[in-house]
Amino acid sequence: MRFIHLADVHLGAAPDADSPWCEQRENDIWETFQKVIADVKEKQVELLLICGDLFHRQPLRKELRDANYLFTTIPDTTVVLIAGNRDYLKEDSYYLSFSWSKNVVCLFGEACDAVYLKQLNTYVYGLSYYSQEISKPYYDNIRPLKKDACHILLAHGGDTHHIPIHIERIKQAGFDYVALGHMHNPQILQENAIAYSGSPEPLDRTETGAHGYILGEYANGQVQIQFCPCAKRQYISLEVETDRESTQLSLEDTLKQGMQEHGMENIYHITLVGLRDADVMFYPEKIQALGYVLEVVDRTEPDYDFEKLKERYRGTLIGEFIEYFPAKRTELETKALYYGMQALLQSRGER
Ligand SMILES: [Mn+2]
Asked: From the CA of 158, how far away is ligand 1's center (Å)?
């Protein structure tokens, strides 16, 4: 039996809120979800497990219809889903009155429930959130039924306010597989047994690295899983070192090359470090125009010719400041000298 473990799709989210590509990101999340459904079809997956937070907030009716439409395109796959803390079952949630395609099973109980899928000889267990926070460790005491079948637990949470999980308790429970949701980065807690799939599309700049879903196979009483990347974009932190030869254009070329190597579709957080010629200044807005650049942090420092400056400012505060430092400086002294120099020159209206 082949299954896909998916979680935290966050349909309806629009990451990078202040960027020009925010709307694109909202579409990305839907497109990635469509891609997962296409993979279900292509890989002939029999069971699609959605471990909470399919939606970023209370789903709109039209959003449920779109998701349900996609489920109708995989009629041979059973879809089992639970509601997480984001798309929790509020009193007036459209989730509760929606009529799903017949291959969809919602485990919408407040207490743990199990569904038996006869054709797969599989029990799937789970509960749903009825509020944004649950601090009771509900999963710690859930045990599979004593039946000769595959037993899979769908769980959402793992932090103090979202059903804390004591991993040792879950390890001892005896499930064939525990499919976790809520943490957005993929993470395997026990090999082939307990894992967070992470969100299929990263949702903010802290969620760097590959994102996707987990493909699993249950055969001869044993589960095997593998992580399948499927995100359209990744968040990447790029650090570039400059020197006294660097210019705006040479820096742009270096960055373009770096971004091409990592993929132009990806979203970058760029940090500039190192020295620069004291007359050169870099323009972050020009760097941002090179691609999907969220932010440019400029930590470069001007490289001063102290001999020249000493001559020029002899007898002034600046001259004395430079002379205060020995020719052979410690790292700390060098820093103090550069920062002080910058401050002194700035106060004179120079750089
Ligand atoms: Mn969550």
From this structure: 9
